[in-house]
Amino acid sequence: MKVILPIGIGFGLNAMSHNVGLRGDLAASLGNRGAALSNHVSALLLTIAAFACFGYAGWQIWQRRKRRDEPADGLPIIPSLVKAPRADADGEAFDPDAVLARYLAKKQAAELSGPPEPPPLPPSPSEPARPVFGRKQR
Question: Nearest Cα to 53, choosing from 107, 110, 2?
């Protein structure tokens, strides 16, 4: 709830800035340079205030996220240390060395057997293929 209010105020200030800027453009087109300058400066200040509201909301989101990731004792939670080790289908714990050894054994067996044979080519058609795009040729 603390974040929605500054975002809404920021959008309101941004809309007001746009309207005041249009008033400045109208005053400039009518030749009133003093009113045009004051309206454009006001529009700039409203835009800065809108960006400040958006920045405050972003800072609140960042702080809330930072507080959510820290436990009560103040130490950060490291998800990789909290997760339990995965088990294989056999119920044994995951062993990265065994996985690497199986991969290397399969790779060496594939290198010793030679390159795989390419798949056979499809039979060539008895008549040439007809064009399917463009105009019909006679």
Answer: 2
